[in-house]
Design a protein that fits this description.
The complex is a heterodimer of chains A (302) and B (180). By secondary structure, chain A is of the alpha+beta class. Helix content of chain A is 35%, strand content 24%. Chain A has a domain at 128-292: Rod shape-determining protein MreC, domain 1 (Thrombin, subunit H, Beta Barrel). Chain A contains three helices and twelve strands. In chain A, the strands form two sheets. In chain A, strands 1-2-5-4-3-12 form a six-stranded antiparallel β-barrel. Chain A has a six-stranded antiparallel barrel with strand order 6-7-8-11-10-9. In chain A, a hairpin with a 6-residue loop joins strand 1 (128-137) and strand 2. Helix content of chain B is 74%, strand content 0%. Chain B contains eight helices and no strands. Chain B has helices at residues 2-9, 11-21, 23-36, 51-62, 69-83, 89-108, 113-139, 146-172. In chain B, helix 4 runs parallel beside helix 6 (89-108), helix 5 (69-83) crosses helix 6 (89-108) and helix 6 (89-108) packs antiparallel against helix 7. The chains are: A alpha+beta (302), B mainly alpha (180). Chains A and B meet through helix 1, helix 2, strand 1 and strand 2 of A and helix 3, helix 5, helix 6, helix 7 and helix 8 of B. Chain B: Pfam families: MreD. Chain B: This is Rod shape-determining protein MreD. Chain B: The chain crosses the membrane at residues 17-37, 44-61, 81-103, 115-143, 149-166.
């Protein structure tokens, strides 16, 4: 069979076939370039496809992530047992310190409530929240998390994604059974923040590194390492005061923030709905609150 | 002999043959899904190894006939949509890698594992470099190349175990008719 295939007809047909195969291959290559260009000019066009793919893959990822989580829990358990004594000692000290804080907090709470009554202040409270399991992550160039909760479970675009230590990002895309969180460290993440002590406003801009930058701060902000950074509530995206991190470095090269959540590999993430529609609900994927953050601000894209 | 002929022409045997032929595609898709699973390891926090490239490289050398251009385009797009990265970038990188490896595949035939690994190192470097540049183009911003560098090293380190698994799958893939 193989010997017969090497007849004169095949010899002429072979280069033709190779040529056709190469041509088809080049068409596929051109298709991928066209996809890249389309993705850049109109990122929204892929949003639906993206969420359909994620919805379809969510059950598989949900199953695959369980052993990983179990293994992680086992390692953590072992680690905890090793350092039980030191951890206990540390916690004892922390409880003592926190008891003092509790006294201060109680006094402030009473004072605050009295003052709020005087001002008839309206406080933003969480209307509802939904907790989801992390079933996927982004790649080297995307800082995102995939959760196993979607529209059906109550996830909505623009909700704040929070873990125990503070804000980690916001819901960027929602499918029926899955949603994608754009982390604060992502290149496209822009969140209006303020320095807790000085109330100086700025924008927290991710750049794919572990330490996002503070940009568009006022020249006289006088930022110092160690200052707490919280959400400012501007643009009506998040309520003010959600903890984000502390100023890590502040020099000529810029100001960078160490996130409270930077060492965390969250297994569960809570999505909080404050009932603030803001501009995030309609913001295009990957482009955060920048356009409506404030009329005096220019677009954030470098 | 007659029994064997009957078996070969049997529907079940043909289905079996077809399913085994899909193994390269299925293993590549599995790599895509695995690369989306959160590992919880600190070193994986900011980078992700290019697992799909390992599968594409392996099958491009040994069975390029079972992983055609359209499949690679689809695998790349699937990865981009699942991971949330810029659509088209992974397809582009995988297609180019496939093109380069297929043109050099005869060189790797019969060579030791070290040589194949060394070849992967080069291909993965080119792929990491191109991915970094393409992402900067698509995202229109400067990106620290450190992430791409670490991802490259991780990908190389993960090649041996994944290649071992792929070679197990390779044993199940039907032999090419021309080779038989």
């Amino acid at each position: 069979m193989a010997k017969r295939a090497k007849g004169p007809d095949t010899r002429t047909a072979q280069p033709l076939r190779t040529f056709a195969q190469r041509a088809v291959f080049l068409i596929f290559l051109a298709c991928s370039i066209a996809l890249m260009v389309l993705g850049r000019t109109d990122p929204d066009s892929f949003e639906r496809a993206r969420m359909q793919v994620t919805d379809a893959a969510a059950p598989i990822l949900d199953v695959l992530v369980r052993p990983v989580d179990a293994m992680n829990a086992l390692v953590e358990h072992g680690y905890d047992l090793l350092y039980l004594y030191q951890e206990n000692e540390r916690l004892r000290q922390e409880v003592e310190r926190l008891m003092q804080w509790q006294a201060v907090a109680r006094r402030l709470e009473v004072e605050n409530s009295q003052m709020r009554e005087l001002l008839t202040f309206r406080r933003e409270t969480v209307k509802r929240f939904v907790t989801g399991r992390v079933i996927g992550t982004g790649g080297t160039f995307v800082r995102s998390l995939l959760l196993n909760v979607g529209e059906i479970q109550g996830a909505r675009k623009g909700q704040a994604a929070v873990i125990g230590t503070g804000l980690i990002g916001r819901v960027a895309e929602v499918g029926l059974h899955s949603s994608r969180i754009l982390l604060l460290t992502d290149l496209n993440s822009r969140v209006p923040v303020q320095i807790e002590s000085s109330r100086a406003r700025a924008i927290l801009a991710g750049d794919n590194t572990a330490f996002p930058r503070l940009i568009y701060g006022a020249a006289n902000s006088d930022l110092q390492p160690g200052q707490r950074v919280v959400t400012s509530g501007d643009a009506g995206a998040f309520p003010p005061g959600l903890p984000i991190g502390v100023v890590a470095t502040a020099d000529e090269s810029g100001v960078r923030v160490q996130l409270y959540s930077s060492d965390e590999r969250p297994e569960l993430v809570r999505l909080m709905d404050f009932g603030l529609d803001g501009i995030l609900g309609s913001a295009p994927q990957g482009v955060a609150p920048t356009r409506s953050v404030g009329s005096d601000m220019r677009p954030v894209r470098p | 002999m007659a029994f064997a002929t009957t078996m070969r022409s049997g529907l079940l045997a043909r289905m079996d043959h077809f399913a085994r032929g899909l193994l390269p595609l299925l293993t590549a898709l599995m790599c895509v899904v695995l690369s989306a699973v959160p590992s919880r390891l600190p070193m994986f926090a900011l980078v992700a190894p290019a697992l799909t490239l390992i599968a594409i490289y392996y099958w491009s050398i040994y069975r390029p006939d079972l992983l055609r251009g359209f499949f690679i385009l689809a695998i790349g797009l699937f990865q981009d949509l699942l991971i949330g990265s810029a659509p088209g970038v992974t397809s582009f990188i995988l297609l180019l890698s496939y093109l380069v490896v297929v043109s050099q595949r005869r060189f790797f035939h019969g060579k030791s594992f070290g040589v194949v690994w060394w070849g992967f190192m080069l291909i993965a470097f080119g792929a990491a470099l191109l991915t970094w540049i393409s992402n900067m183009f698509v995202l229109n911003a400067w990106i620290d190349p450190k992430g791409a560098g670490i991802s490259w090293v991780l990908t190389i380190l993960l090649y041996p175990p994944f290649a071992a698994l792929l070679s197990q799958a390779h044993k199940l893939v039907p032999v090419r008719e021309l080779d038989a």
